[in-house]
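Structure in, sequence out. Go:
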């Protein structure tokens, strides 16, 4: 709603040009989906993912004749977008008694934002970070205003029920786990790999997604198990290949703290929005009647998947 400067002392000479923003990662999930071209643009409220499937029934071709056989089906899944806006009003006069006064122009009327580049970059990063979390943990019934604008992938997987393969089961894991620890994490990832449907396990875009916390537990467990011959080439990006396979393990901030792991083709996910990259657009302007600098960003976002039966979950 406004500047929070209560923790700053009254102005004394400081390095007013140094304004450091802490690190916030952008929405990696959205970037992965966009790279696949699975973005549905122009979605005002909801739009369907239209799915066609067909079979091929072989017949004896040693004789003449025509015998109709086989089925082609059409199904749909719906991407429902949340309508989101970010508004902030800033009274620059709040900065006059702090070291930040050095960034203010001469005079008593301030009609432009100070540190505008740093502020806008930080704001965009925050929006991307919140979207990353929402794409996975979004729940329209949540009391958290940053999560209740649309349903995320985890809720949609739960809603799909038995259509999604459950690797946290006796069938694939031998037991049902209630936590992910250094002693069971290697076996958990092996169980997920075993549970991936045979028809998609060899697809180039099949990957296993987990939080940075689970990813770290897994990499430490591999080291402890003396599996040094498996190189985490892309550790800086939170990615490496699952030992003994060609499938990537990808760490995502949106899954942090969930203790949930998902295996799926990235091409199975669809992102809905009204305008491509709209979440990166914003306006900063001076509202003369209120003597405030205001920030406005407004966009729509939603997510879904096409084929629940091609997804594997390990939820604890």
């Amino acid at each position: 709603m406004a500047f929070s400067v209560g923790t700053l002392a009254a102005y004394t000479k400081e390095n007013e040009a140094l304004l450091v923003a802490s690190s916030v990662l952008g929405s990696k999930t959205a970037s992965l989906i966009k790279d696949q071209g699975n973005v549905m643009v122009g979605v005002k409220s909801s739009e369907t993912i239209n799915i066609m499937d067909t079979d091929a029934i072989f017949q004896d071709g040693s004789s003449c004749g025509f015998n109709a056989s086989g089925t082609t089906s059409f199904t749909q899944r719906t991407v429902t977008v949340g309508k989101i806006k970010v508004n902030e009003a800033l009274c620059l006069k709040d900065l006059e008694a702090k070291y930040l006064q050095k960034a203010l122009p001469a005079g008593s009327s301030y009609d432009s934002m100070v540190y505008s580049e740093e502020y806008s970059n930080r704001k965009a990063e925050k929006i991307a970070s919140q979207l990353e979390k929402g794409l996975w943990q979004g729940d329209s019934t949540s009391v958290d205003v940053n999560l209740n604008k649309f349903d995320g992938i985890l809720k949609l997987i739960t809603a799909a029920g038995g259509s999604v393969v459950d690797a946290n089961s006796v069938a694939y894991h031998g037991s049902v786990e209630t936590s992910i620890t250094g002693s069971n994490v290697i076996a958990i990832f092996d169980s997920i790999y075993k549970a991936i449907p045979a028809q998609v396990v060899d697809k180039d875009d099949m990957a296993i997604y987990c939080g940075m916390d689970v990813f770290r537990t897994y990499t430490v467990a591999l080291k402890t198990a003396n599996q040094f011959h498996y190189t985490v080439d892309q550790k800086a990006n939170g990615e490496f290949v699952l030992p003994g396979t060609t499938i990537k393990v990808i760490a995502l901030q949106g899954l942090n703290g969930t203790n949930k792991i998902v295996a799926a083709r990235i091409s199975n996910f669809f992102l809905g929005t009204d305008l491509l990259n709209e979440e990166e657009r914003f306006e900063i302007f001076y509202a003369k009647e209120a003597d405030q600098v205001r920030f406005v960003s407004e966009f729509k976002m939603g997510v879904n998947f096409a084929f629940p039966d091609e997804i594997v979950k390990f939820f604890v």
